[in-house]
Write a structure and sequence with these properties.
heterotrimer, A mainly alpha (about 600), B mainly alpha (about 190), C alpha+beta (about 350), B: about 190 residues, mainly alpha, about 0% strand, elongated, C: about 350 residues, alpha+beta, Cytochrome Bc1 Complex, Chain D, domain 2, 3 domains, five-stranded mixed beta sheet, three-stranded mixed beta sheet
């Protein structure tokens, strides 16, 4: 195979690529496009709420915005953006040439992309999902949502979920099986640990939502009545199933960002991560406890006192490992020499914003307090602090940190820092007042509010803050495109970092490592550069190798075919009339692709 | 990728992936079984399990699936010991017994339908069909994969002894079998409790 | 323990008084201004929690900000930080301290949860609250009353709300009375209150309620009011609440005929007439309600006019007042301005404003 020369270009090379770095770029780029979409949805909502009784958008549009903003940001932005980092960094950080199953990796990207498009397809025919990102039955039943909107939601999520499942198995195997020589589990970078735990959460929690989505689809199309109390079904069952998945999902969103921030803070403070092993244990503890707290989303459904008490206790308990992490991050920074860059600013702000969101989380872990806060803006404020101030800020830090490695060029620092401050101020301006709105009783997901409730001022401030964030987002887009073409060229190790990906050129060659690395320490690269006292060591000259001797998997078009078949099959399921034929075509494409795939020489 | 890649755990990547998938499938079937247990007595109209289950027939199909698992174990054994014909016969037996099982299930479903238990009749029926149907789907996929292996080995003859692939299929098949034992206990035997 | 709670109370008072008091006016749905025992119990836990988490925040924020400021890289600095990998003693401390603090939140929480689980007394006034898309139905089984969107209760009385839903999931919430409960179809959830003492004996006290579970298009327009009356006036109200309307003029007579001929009666019920529809709100004694369309419009001539006009002129799902409302008229049911006037006269005729 002659895939070692100049990097291949052109659309076809991207469509058929199985290179984890290119797939990472595809993930990242798609996620950022969906981020624009989700952002526009947020701005439309905030504009509608800028004054009471506004008629900027209709109730129907607003409900679609609420639903799709949540669904998009969670499933099509934060998850795939984390996925971009999993893809790019996992093999590089563990010293592997690629992931365990490169073609499955391509498959999961295409399935995700098509699923995301299916999810959003409702907008094209004016039947966008509007039952909330949690899709509580029985509002999503045929009787109350007679159009296709709930089907787009359920089927789109089903397909996107399949993509995550494939990816999670792939990364789980990659991390446990493909580490380079010497990299024992407790020498893996923190980001790899959070990735590993995230994959476990994914492949254990996704089946639950899969079944729930199948059930609602059966209810809608075959009249099964799982969530129809009239025939013995239960609407609470949906909530249990959804949150058994939905709460681990929260940690699926935040853990990768925690890993990213751990790497950023260690690098920019020039200190190892404080209490590495405790960080590892706390990550595992969070993952484990994450499965035992789901019903804290359901305190107001009438669980009964003992179940409530159990979930209160479990929820409070999860604050302990989280708190340990926060203290350890602060100790990492303490005594360091913190270089202030856009990446480190985002990383540091993650700690602050996440702490804040975590603390308001402790407040409504107490069921009586939750009964006053649930479904008000207080909760909106809480989870935006955790997921936006937390996860998204962390991911932006990751983008600024690894962009030189990904593209070979720096993102512009000036634009980056302006964006950071716009984000930081805009974000807090939007979401801090929401605590007040919540305490003043403003329910969430309301397309409008009456002027006599005293909510006008804070809503106005929230909206202005949202506009500021939007400006920050536009700046980032400009920065991204400018820097890809004209950004300052980056050396292999621009930040004086600690992990293996910085030992190879920026951007990395297709085969990653000329010679497969061997490690002896945690933060091995740092120990190669510095001795125990922190004095610079002479790096040995790079060893010679023959790039043509490295075997790489060849490109394949079967993944995209299989993904298209899957999406076809899912979409055909609910199209009236010719839907069956679309599904059959989908199944045929799946079978052909699967056999083509199986017989293809890798 | 080369099949002889060294791994940290010493387990082949594909086998490891199958174990992971099985972990995930446990939650899938766990959810389905829980759903069945929740819903089995919530129906407002009949028929119920007590009224329509035919325990003799299901015992027979359970036995059939168990035998297929035994055949699968033989297939893996013969593959390891490079005995082509016995391996092919074992694989054929597995596929055939899998097909028998699907036939039993087809017969059972159409019988229940005839008795008046449709997918939308009541929540017991809906959960029952979803659980056993999902399992049936797994059996069908297994039969497809095993037939593919069989055909591949028939075409390539002595050159084709893929220990790993047969063993991974075996893992999957045994898992599907174990799940059936649980389903048999929870669905068909619990009605007597 | 008790003195610690007292200390926390004082601290929290100072905290609220200094920082947040300005922000928390006594608004119609303010959870900071509760009037029931249940609400006070919640806010007691809330204050303790607020103080604890605020202390934690300060304890985290100060060292963090200090560290960033103190240890930032200065121009040309080449100092190599000491490579500290961890400190088990410290880590054990910051594992244990949060556990201790959480216990201080958990115990009062547990106390309140268990108090709430106590069974209501025998003589508790039972009110069935049924959520509908998008209005509230209130039934008083012991009094034989069915009303909508305004829940009348006597002061200082133990009441038991049996909450359920006629269609999708809603949630019953009066912020100033304390925590909410979901109204689930097919399930009856129970929540109890001791109603507050009355402040305005003349007019009655109005407490704003709102649905808090996304329930479709007009979720934002699903409001209601809890009205606290003195015990005497509640007695009076319960006597007139189901009184059939008295027709006092020809206009009202015409209104009544329109009500029956324009098919209003298929969805709405009015006591003493042939109208006994169950789909929409019961309109008996409608004239005595403050608001219409679930707290969306004032129940005045103009309000009712706006409501009926909007319902007549709009396509379903695209009404301007309550999108998606079932209050629609087909092409055969157009209302002239005269019709609206007559209907208004009929519906808003106050039987007797005697409570």
């Amino acid at each position: 195979m002659s895939n070692h020369g100049a990097p291949k270009t052109g659309l076809w090379s991207w469509i058929t690529t199985v290179d984890h770095k290119r797939i990472a770029a595809l993930y990242g780029f798609s996620a950022l496009l969906f981020f624009v979409l989700g952002g526009v949805e947020a701005i439309m909502m905030r504009t509608q709420l800028i004054v009471p009784n506004n008629d900027f958008i209709t109730a129907r549009t607003f409900n679609s915005m609420v639903t799709m903003h949540g669904t998009t940001m969670i499933f099509l932005v934060v998850m795939p953006l984390s996925g971009a980092f999993f893809n790019f960094l996992t093999p590089l950080m563990i010293g592997a040439r690629d992931v365990a199953f490169p073609r499955l990796n391509a498959l999961s990207f295409w399935v995700f992309l098509f699923g995301g498009l299916l999810l959003n397809f409702g907008f094209v025919i004016n039947e966008a999902p509007r039952g909330g990102w949690f899709g509580y039955a029985n509002l999503t039943e045929l009787q109350y949502t007679p159009d296709l909107s709930a089907d787009f939601w359920a089927m789109g999520l089903q397909v996107v979920g399949l993509a995550s499942l494939i990816a999670s198995i792939n990364f789980f195997v990659t991390i446990l099986n493909m580490r380079c020589k010497g990299m024992t589990l407790l020498k893996m970078p923190m980001f790899i640990w959070t990735t590993l735990v995230t994959q476990v959460l994914l492949f254990l929690s996704l089946p639950v939502i899969t079944i729930a989505l199948v059930m609602i689809t059966f209810d809608r199309h075959f009249g099964t009545g799982f969530f129809n109390p009239g025939v013995g079904g239960s609407v609470v069952l949906w909530q249990h199933l959804f949150w058994v998945f939905g709460h681990p999902e929260v940690y699926i969103l935040i853990l990768p960002a925690m890993g990213i921030v751990s790497e950023i803070l260690a690098t920019f403070s020039r200190k190892p991560l404080f209490g590495y092993s405790v960080m590892v244990y706390s990550t595992c503890a969070i993952g484990f406890l994450g499965f035992a707290v789901w019903a804290h989303h359901m305190f107001t459904t009438g669980l009964g006192p003992w179940a409530t008490t159990f979930f209160v206790a479990a929820t409070m308990l999860i604050a302990v490992p989280t708190g340990v992490k926060i203290f350890n991050w602060i100790s990492t920074v303490w005594g360091g020499r913190i270089k202030i860059t856009t990446a480190s600013l985002f990383g540091l702000s993650f700690v602050a914003m996440f702490t804040f969101g975590g603390l308001s989380g402790i407040m409504h872990s107490s069921a009586p307090i939750d009964s006053q806060h649930q479904d008000t803006y207080f909760v909106v404020a809480h989870f935006h602090y955790v997921l936006y101030g937390g996860a998204v800020m962390g991911l932006f830090g990751g983008i600024f940190y690894w962009f030189p490695k990904i593209s070979g060029r720096f993102l512009n620092e000036t634009l980056g820092q302006i964006q950071f401050w716009l984000y930081m101020i805009g974000f807090n301006m939007t979401f801090f007042p929401m605590h007040f709105l919540g305490v003043q009783g403003m329910p969430r997901r309301n397309y409008t509010y009456a002027p006599d409730m005293g909510w006008d001022l804070w809503n106005f401030i929230c909206t202005i803050g949202a506009y500021m964030t939007a400006v920050g987002g536009i700046l980032f887009a400009i920065n991204l495109f400018y820097s890809l073409k004209k950004g300052e060229k980056a050396p292999a190790d621009p930040w004086d970092a600690r992990t293996l990906e910085w030992t190879i050129p920026s951007p990395p060659p297709e085969y990653n490592f000329g010679i497969e690395p061997t490690v002896t320490h945690l933060d091995d690269f740092w120990h190669r550069k510095y001795d125990e006292e922190g004095h610079k060591k002479q790096l040995p000259p790079p060893a010679k190798y023959d790039p043509h001797a490295i075997h790489l998997p060849g490109p394949s078009y079967w993944p995209i075919c299989l993904a298209a078949g899957l999406t076809c099959g899912a979409a055909g399921f609910f199209l009236k009339g010719f839907g069956l034929y679309v599904s059959l075509v989908g199944v045929a494409v799946i079978l052909i692709s699967a056999y083509g795939w199986a017989y293809e020489e890798a | 990728m080369s099949t002889h890649l060294e791994t940290n755990t010493g387990v082949d990547n594909r086998k490891f992936a199958m174990w992971t998938l099985i972990g995930s499938e446990c939650f899938l079937f766990g959810t389905l079984i829980t759903n069945y247990l929740i819903n089995r007595n919530r129906s407002v109209t009949g028929p119920t399990g007590q009224e329509i289950f035919n325990i003799d027939l299901t015992t027979l199909s359970t036995f059939d699936l168990l035998l297929s698992s035994v055949a699968m174990a033989f297939a893996v054994y013969y593959c390891k010991h490079k005995k082509l014909r016995p391996m092919q016969w074992s694989l054929a037996t597995v596929a055939l017994f899998g097909l028998f099982f699907l036939g039993f299930q087809y017969y059972e479903f159409s019988h229940f339908l005839h008795e008046g238990l449709g997918l939308s009749t009541n929540v017991f029926g809906a959960s029952f069909y979803m659980l056993t149907g999902c399992h049936g789907l797994h059996v069908a996929v297994g039969v497809m994969i095993i037939s593919t292996l069989l055909i591949k080995s028939l075409i390539k003859g002595e050159a084709w002894f893929n220990d790993d692939v047969v063993e991974i299929c075996g893992l999957y098949w045994h898992f599907v079998d174990v799940i059936w034992i649980i389903i048999f206990t929870v669905v068909y035997l619990f009605v007597y409790v | 323990m008790v003195s610690l709670v007292r200390l926390l109370k004082v601290l929290s008072f100072l905290f609220l008084a200094s920082g947040l008091n300005g922000c928390f006016e006594k608004l119609p749905m303010s959870t900071a201004h509760v009037v029931t025992e249940w609400g006070r119990q919640i806010n007691h836990v809330y204050l303790i929690t607020t103080v604890i988490v605020s202390l934690i925040f300060v304890a985290v924020a100060i060292p963090f900000c200090y560290a960033i400021w103190k240890f930032r890289e200065k121009e040309g600095e080449t100092r190599m930080p000491k490579q500290i990998t961890g400190n088990h003693k410290l880590e054990i401390i910051w594992t244990l301290v949060p556990i201790v603090l959480l216990i201080f939140i958990f115990l009062p929480t547990l106390e309140v949860i268990m108090k709430r689980a106590e069974a209501p007394p025998e003589d508790s006034l039972v009110i069935e609250a049924i959520g509908h898309q998008w209005w509230w139905e209130f039934k008083y089984p012991s009094l034989g009353i069915t009303t909508a969107n305004e829940m009348f209760v006597p002061e200082n009385t133990h009441i038991t709300i049996k909450a359920t839903s006629g269609d999708v999931i809603h949630a019953f919430w009066i912020p100033r009375w304390g925590g909410k409960i979901d109204t689930l179809p097919g399930i009856i959830n129970q929540i109890t209150y001791v109603t507050p003492s009355i402040e305005d004996a003349e007019k009655g006290d109005y407490y704003q309620g709102h649905c808090t579970e996304l329930c479709g298009l007009s979720h934002a327009r699903m409001r209601y009011e809890a009205v606290v009356l003195t015990k005497d006036r509640f007695q009076q109200w319960s006597k007139v609440a189901m009184q059939p309307p008295v027709i006092a003029s020809t206009l009202e007579k015409k209104g009544q005929e329109l009500f029956m001929s324009k098919t209003c009666f298929t969805c709405h019920a009015i006591e003493g007439t042939q109208a006994n529809g169950k789909i929409g709100p019961n309109l008996t004694n409608f004239g005595n309600r403050r608001h219409l369309a679930a707290g969306t419009l004032n129940n005045t001539k103009d309000g009712l006019h706006t409501w009926l006009r909007d319902s007549v002129d709009s396509k379903p799902d695209y009404q301007t007042i309550k999108p998606g409302s079932l209050m629609v008229f087909g092409p055969n049911f157009e209302l002239t301005e005269g019709d609206i006037k007559a209907l208004t006269a009929y519906l808003q005729h106050s039987t007797a404003k005697t409570y």
